[in-house]
Amino acid sequence: MKWLSLYPDEHIYSGLIRYRIRMGQGVMSDKRFFSHNGLPYQWFRSQVPLNHLMRETLDIITPEPDKQFALRLNHTPFAPWLLSLPGSMAPHELKEASHRPNTEENPFQVDRRWKYCPNCMQIHKAKFGVSYWRATHQLPGALICEEHGTPLHSHDELRYLAFKLPHHYLHKSQALVLEANWQHDWQSFIYRMSRQLQSNPEWARNVAHCMKSYLGLERVIKHTHRVRFGGFFECMKEDLGQDCLAGLFTRFARGNGRQPNILWLTLSGYSQGKGLRHPLYWLACLFWLRSALPELAFLHEHRSDHGS
């Protein structure tokens, strides 16, 4: 797609919306637009950078693997997925999570609607003449704009993106609300974690080892270690609190049935599911250990440019 261009931190799907407008293809039906440009027909979702639809979309935009990786890393909320990188795989080889699109997000409680910052929208319109959807605002659990420190906005229509840019929702969207204390701490955590992984994708390789070392666990986890994991997870639940786990995982939000041991599912390597472990598992564990692991010191560094 020769004429596709992206602004700083613009989500790839936002770029496709602007491309459609720019090329005068707005009169086409959605299906015709996708077919005309050789793109897979899809509903644009905000937090699925590794499904097969994104992979096929990137294949059309550019055939070069390095450029595809740069686009995924800088123009989707992909960075946290590097925490799930298999040990034998290079970061640029991570292209698909092997989940069916309709089940990939089901176990997770975070808001998956598209979100935008009204302040960013006004700045973008003044600078570029158009608003656009920022990739970092779609990070799991992001409720405020890191740059402005103000709540992000969303709307019930934004579960999927219907070829509209943020300014279309300015007068009908609502500000997102940080209802729990843990959500305030999560904002800085998720933005800084994503930035760390964007700047150094290889950093994710040592995360599991650092966590196991801190907890006194063997490098290779066996089923016989599950009892120890039970004790650790009780500590994790007590430290994070029920509100936090319920805000991240659907099973905890429902409050009925068996609640999974998040730490075991993350570190053990044992799972009945297929595909990569969703990064929210890793993020929850790191959020728990954010003040304990020396490797997470960057989470506590002062950033004068954002006043945080």
Strand order of the largest sheet: 1-2
Helix count? 12
Shape: globular
pLDDT averaged over residues: 91
Radius of gyration: 20 Å
Query: What is the total number of structural domains?
Result: 3
Let me know the number of strands: 2
**Poorly predicted runs:** none
Query: Which sequence of SSEs, written as H and E, runs from N to C?
Result: HHHHHEEHHHHHHH
What proportion strand? under 5%
Distance between the termini: 39 Å
Alpha-beta content class: mainly alpha
Helix percentage: 25-40%
Sheet of most strands: 2 strands, antiparallel
InterPro entries: TniQ
Pfam families: TniQ
Domain TniQ: 4-152
Protein name: TniQ family protein
Q: How is this structure best described in words?
A:
With 308 residues, the protein is mainly alpha-helical. The protein folds into 3 domains: 82 residues, no CATH class; 58 residues, no CATH class; 120 residues, no CATH class. The chain is 39% helix and 1% strand. The chain has 12 helices and 2 strands; from the N terminus they run H-H-H-H-H-E-E-H-H-H-H-H-H-H. A two-stranded antiparallel ribbon has the order 1-2. The longest helix is centred in the middle third of the chain and has 19 residues. The model has no long low-confidence stretch (mean pLDDT 91). This is TniQ family protein.
Keywords:
308 residues, 12 helices, 39% helix, 1% strand, 3 domains, two-stranded antiparallel ribbon, single chain, mainly alpha, globular
